Amino acid sequence: MENAVHEAFALAESAASVIRAAFPAQHDMLVVLGSGWAESVPALEAMSTSPVLTLDVADIPGFKKPTALGHGGALKSIRIGTTPVLLLTGRTHLYEGRGVHAVVHGVRTAFALGCRTVLLTNGAGCLRTDWNVGTPVVIRDHINLTAHSPLTGDNAPAPLAGRFVDLTDAYNESLRALVRTVEPGINEAVYLGLHGPHFETPAEIRMAATWGAEMVGMSTVLETIAARHLGMNVLALSLATNLASGLSGNKLSGEEVIQVGKDSSKKVGDLLGRVLIAFDQQKGTLAL
């Protein structure tokens, strides 16, 4: 296990070397596009104040093209205002069977490249029947029921922190407040992360509700833990792609998630763009 941990961080350094050779800018932020968010790529590229650079993730050490529906396989370098941003058009999920280190490889690679802020997005089932499907929300906290942690095993190599990390402020309040300045009516939610790939049973959703969960999905929590371990600031946005199991009477499917993402592409692309512009304008005053 010690070798696995050290090899994972060494692989992130190797990936960073390849990316650095292709993308000369010093990047400040990583944006990960989850289910339902990939349709926003053209809008974000159109906003870039410098030429968009693209790498196929298959050409970067430690990365493989995601197998999840609606996830792209590219890493892009864009610039929003004066802020260089790494844009990962898809992610690896735990249920793809590649292991927890593969799930958080993008975050660790971005850290090795100098990023200190990560914006994670996902599509998720919504437990709140008073929230509309197709609506983005801000994640304020999470419940990790994946039965995994990226910090399992030996300590990370020096000078990185040990295996323990405080998650009291996992999702940065200043960044959440930043979103509220550009989208004042946006809801905040507790996100429940599960292993997947199966959808939840109605009984599991009732259990999640008693624990205070409002959104449920199969990503984000492990990346957040890995990012906070490295001292990165995390903002996470979730798109309500469906009502959770047993709440609507409808059968759940991955195709439904993709369709809602397509139908919401203008909305989420606009929100992401406004959040990134606000970050660029206010990053010097944020409590990060």
Mean pLDDT, rounded to whole units? 92
CATH superfamily: Nucleoside phosphorylase domain
The CATH architecture category equals 3-Layer(aba) Sandwich
User: What are the low-pLDDT stretches, counting only 5+ consecutive residues below 50?
Assistant: none
Instruction: Evaluate the radius of gyration.
Output: 18 Å
Q: Whole-Å distance between the termini?
A: 33 Å
* Class inferred from helices and paired strands: alpha/beta
Largest sheet: 5 strands, mixed, barrel
If strands are numbered along the chain, what order do they take across the biggest sheet? Answer: 5-8-7-6-9
* Residue share in β-strands: 15-25%
Number of helix segments? 9
CATH topology: Rossmann fold
Domains counted in the coordinates: how many? 1
User: What is the number of strand segments?
Assistant: 9
Report the oligomer: single chain
What percent of the residues sit in helical stretches (DSSP H or I)?
25-40%
**What sequence of helices (H) and strands (E) makes up the elements?**
HEHEEEHHEEHEHEHEHH
CATH class: Alpha Beta
Shape: globular
